[in-house]
Amino acid sequence: MNHTLLRLIIPGVFLTLATGCVTSTVDEMVFDEPSEGIGDATVVILGRRHASDYETEPDFIECVGKHIAARDKSIEVIGELEFLNALYPWFEPRTAPLKPSDIDKLMLQRPVAQKLTALKTEYLIWIDGSTVRNDSAGSMACGIGPGGGGCFGFGTWSNDADYEATIWDFTDRAEVGRVNTKATGQSYMPAVVIPIPIIAPVQGTACDGIGEQLLQFLSGHY
């Protein structure tokens, strides 16, 4: 079994009028990647939502899928909602498989086996994580006077994104790789009459980082 460990550090330190400052890292471990891509098979990307304190955002899952599909037109990514509706209720948070060995139990359900065969699903990618807002600081005051209204002040906050993608091979009933991405960014809100948000694209950076590594795996470009 081939084991590959890759760590990318992306010092995306940008501060412009439109965006804040973002730093991100990507860690990857691949056990058994496809050597020539996935052919006419399909891949589905799902968000883990069984935790009680957070849920993996649907828009992040959609972003990763679009990143892969846009960069390699030969890869068919089945939409999360489409897949969940087709396999209801076996992939709902309370019933979804938590480990690859659970696939064997799922395949005993004839409707599940038939639907997965019809969809040609080769890889299932679970993404677990979230983006949270932390460390807010500063103050801002707004008011209306005889000459009009306005806001004055300065605010800042950080956003931290932490996501892990686990790749399952439906054929081999095995986990074949993991990708972890972390991104941290500082956003600002200066206000002189009109508040002007300078937002750090933390979630977008995390999406690009994890999406690019999954793309390389599915395209067989390692």
Protein described:
This protein has helices spanning 58-71, 80-86, 102-107, 110-119, 202-219; strands at residues 4-10, 21-30, 42-47, 76-78, 121-145, 148-169, 174-195. By secondary structure, it is an alpha/beta fold. It has one domain (4-219). It has a 7-stranded mixed β-sheet. β5 and β6 form a beta hairpin. It is elongated and about 75 Å long. The model is unreliable at 1-18 (pLDDT under 50).
List the helices and strands and how they pair.
Layout: E1 4-10, E2 21-30, E3 42-47, H1 58-71, E4 76-78, H2 80-86, H3 102-107, H4 110-119, E5 121-145, E6 148-169, E7 174-195, H5 202-219
Parallel strand pairs: 3-4, 3-5
Antiparallel strand pairs: 1-2, 2-7, 5-6, 6-7
Helix pairs in contact: 1-5
Helix content: 10-25%
Cα-to-Cα separation, first versus last residue:
15 Å
**Strand percentage:** 35-45%
Q: Which strand order spans the largest sheet, edge to edge or round the barrel?
A: 1-2-7-6-5-3-4
Number of strands: 7
Average pLDDT confidence is 84
The low-confidence parts are 1-18
Per the principal axes of the C-alpha atoms, what is the gross shape? elongated
Number of helices: 5
Q: Domains counted in the coordinates: how many?
A: 1
How is the biggest beta sheet arranged? 7 strands, mixed
Order of helices and strands: EEEHEHHHEEEH
Structural class: alpha/beta
Q: Nearest-angstrom radius of gyration? A: 21 Å
